[in-house]
Amino acid sequence: MILAKVVGNVTSAVCHPGLDGIRMLLCEVLDPQGEGSGRIIGSADWIGAGDGDTVLINADGDAVQTYAKDPQAPLRNVVMGIVDDLEEKGA
Amino acid sequence: MRFGKVIGRVVLGQTLQSLAGARWLMVKPLSRAQFKDTESKESSTEPSLVVYDKLGAGLGDVVGFTEGGEAMLPLPRGTPVDAYCALIVDRINFFGTK
Q: GO CC annotation: what is one (chain B) (predicted)?
């Protein structure tokens, strides 16, 4: 699971049927300092995360297909939750 | 899922039986600047890769592709594909600052 910041979304008319109607967010993966790393990934979202939200992303398939209701949906990332508070005590 | 721009096509002469007739795209991942403006010349340092395509993406299109095990979910079991073009992007709404 990774932490990322929502930086946008994409719309698409032509997609795999398993992705039809799914909200696809653009999320910038955070580095250990909590800053954007520049690496931007797409993640399916069913909870309504918005721009600027820090989200927890599950980055290992399987669960996504259940939510997408299509065992063949080529998806990997799903937003698990929106981060309210991030407590860090250096390593 | 990552996003990239189609920069070319790959045609295979001899292939595994299960991949006969497949379309392959050369895709260059987008840099952060290119998410803001897809015409930006500031390209990413990530290497380009070959993506299996069934949607009919053309040169210059921005596509979203799934990598890893999930890439072969839409294909018959056991098809060796590790990057699958899952969507053709119509529009990117990018709000990231910095």
A: bacterial microcompartment
Report residue B52 as tokens: 């299996």
The tens digit of pLDDT for each residue in B14-53 reads 999 999 889 999 999 999 999 999 888 898 899 999 999 9
Within the 17-56 window of chain B, which residues sit less than 8 Å (CB to CB) from chain A? 30-32, 35, 54-56
pLDDT in tens, A3-45: 999 999 999 999 999 999 999 999 999 998 888 898 999 999 9
Instruction: Tell me the C-alpha distance between A79 and A87, whole Å.
Output: 20
Residue B98's pLDDT band (boundaries 50, 70, 90)?
low
Position B96 scores a pLDDT of 76
CA-nearest of A17, A69, A78 to A44 is A78
- SS3 at position A64: helix
* Residue of A67, A62, A70, A12 lying closest to A44 (CA atoms): A67
Pairing of strands B23-29, A54-58: unpaired
Residue type (1 letter), A66: T
Kindly state the tokens that stand for B3.
């996003």
Distance CA A78, CA A56 (A): 9
Is this model's pTM higher than 0.90 or not? yes
Residues of B in contact with A52 (CB under 8 A): 95
Helix (H, G, I), strand (E, B) or coil at A76: coil
